[in-house]
Design a protein that fits this description.
This protein is of the alpha/beta class.
Amino acid sequence: MDFPFSRLRRWPDVEAENLQAHDVTDLLLVERALAVHAGGGARGAEIAVIGDEYGAITLALTAAGLGGVRVHQDLVTGRRALARNASELALSGFVPHELDASLLSDARLVLLQLPKSLAELEEITDAVARWAASDVVLLAGGRVKHMTLAQNEVLGRGFARVQAERAVRKSRLVVASDPRDVPAIRPFPVSADHDGLTLVAQGGAFAGAKLDIGTRVLLEVLGLGRSQIRKNGCESGETGSAASDSCHRSGVVNDAAVQTVVDLGCGTGALAASYALAHPEARVIATDRSAAAVASARATVAANGVADRVTVTLDDAGSDLPDGIADVVLLNPPFHLGTSVHTGAATRLFEAAARLLRPGGELFTVYNSSLGYRAELTRLVGPTEQLDRTPKFTVARSVRR
């Protein structure tokens, strides 16, 4: 295949020697798509690409002369990498979309890099079966070590025929065809109540509508658990009341100095919504690089009645926010980059927090205790103290120097 895959970069995502901007699965999907096209199958405008991390699939097809390829990338880092790689290679003609009908209407071939979560795969499978052409073929690929029979079962809910092919260089394609009828109501978003806090989640949102353990620990340390808020008499809308003051005293945040709070990597918005409920006077900004997370967080803050006090943005590590905007940053950083365990994502968020905080501002971080981030937080942000430690998680407060 005459395409310069080696020239592709992951930027602005983390770059390292052991992290590439393409893999064998990308090559297999491109090869199959070109073969289908050469055989009189789908034209460029009838092809949709989902989960193309840095543009390898989309740009290889575009370079081969397939114009009008539609592409959906959940992560804004992937969208920016695709745009940058396209510019470097002087390629254009592909069309970015969200995961909606415009992405899939009349599509006859869908190329999918299999996502990590079964919920995200379920949402994508339903979307393809719901909106694509009746003769659509879904080619789903992944690295063999990350593929499971459960993925085939999810694909089987949307397609009558699901066939796994032989592995090639430790990657494999699964072919799904003959879409089934879909229910009138889409399977996502879903919602769940957590002691009075409602979380809403799209399929691609981390932890779904569950309250992940790390976030729960951070909420408790900050005095933002819903039971604590009710115990102290602080509920949404009680601005300036004695009950609100009592709630403020229950946490560890220096409330007198708080004006703007940033939930960095907000996920489904649990931290942002909880903070806004407990602190009606604060301006809260929630940001995440995942479009699924942002849609989920917006629905979460609306469900909890704080949409007028929480702004949710799709962004890469708060890069669109001004320096020194925040009095407080809340952070539950990931320790995975896709399917790779890598601390680079957390480091980028620590650096972002340092940039966003005013001098003297506070960063509250929860992380897996085995990762030992305290020294790095001290180096990148400022003096750091441990506030709590469970068998699995540590909560730290860093003061911006």
